[in-house]
Amino acid sequence: MKNILITGGTRGLGLEYARYLSKKGYNVGLTDISEDACKVYKEAKSINHILSEIESNGSKVWCEFADLTKRKEAEEVVENFINHFEKIDGVITSAGGDISGNDPDASGGKAENNSFFISFSEHENIFQRNYYTCLNTLRAVVPYMQEQKFGKIVTVSSVNAAFGVEKETTYSVAKSSILQLTRSLAKELRKDGINVNCIMPGPTKTGRFLSTLKGRNPHDLAGINSKAKLDRVALPEDISPVVEFLLSENSDFVSGEVIRIDGGLFPQPI
Ligand SMILES: NC(=O)c1ccc[n+]([C@@H]2O[C@H](COP(=O)([O-])OP(=O)(O)OC[C@H]3O[C@@H](n4cnc5c(N)ncnc54)[C@H](O)[C@@H]3O)[C@@H](O)[C@H]2O)c1
After folding, report:
1. Which of 62, 74, 233, 235 could anchor a disulfide with 29, C-beta 3.0 to 4.6 Å?
2. Which atom of ligand 1 is nearest to the CA of 159?
3. Confidence label for 52 from pLDDT (cuts 50, 70 and 90)
4. How far is the CA of 111 from the centre of ligand 1 (A)?
């Protein structure tokens, strides 16, 4: 079975990937900032509930908590993942999100005063949370994949990376930096047979997304409960099959690619 590391894996889209992949025959290693992060938006009762659910799908599951903005912690997580599973077939860097709000376990929520004029430390936090969690994880993972001569990397950007976004300045900057990280790394790792691709979700109905409705535009609000095929807010289940494609043999000759998953909401070149 393939072993996949998922950062931000106990909540929101990360948790959805874990659930989906475990039903498709992958083992999953989850890492997140704290044991309580999974409870913040009531997407899971506890880590133990998540672990038993995934095991009941027939997969091996492993979990460790770390702040991935800290390089040393990212290195330890990856080393412990390898010690546990012996090899790493893929990684999904889902940890991220916009400004933190007041709850330390809710990293990635959105405070009401989100704007260009948030404090410099918040700008830095957002960049760290979205770019450095990914960079630190990949710096730790890639040497193992190079040694194995295989591996699939899926990074997570956002449609916000493609245009100017009012009140989400540093989030959109950080998410666009993920695009260039993906492309540059894909080029560098061609010789090693390692695929590096990126997904770019549009608005997606996770717990975090639902907690930010006050600041959302009318189109997002109208699309939340719509049953339309395309003209609606995405469900987490819309994103997982694309991620699985990028982890599978079906994408063996695809690298350095960015796949926008938004039902055609922003069909401009990336
Ligand atoms: N939901 C959307 O509309 C949407 C759209 C586009 C992109 N995204 C991106 O998808 C990813 C998941 O989003 P989500 O909506 O599920 O949000 P979320 O807040 O539920 O998930 C983010 C996860 O990252 C973890 N995290 C945050 N800081 C961390 C740190 N320093 N170290 C380790 N883990 C940390 C959080 O605890 C959480 O589990 C994020 O990168 C987000 O930017 C989401």
Report:
1. 62
2. 6
3. very high
4. 15
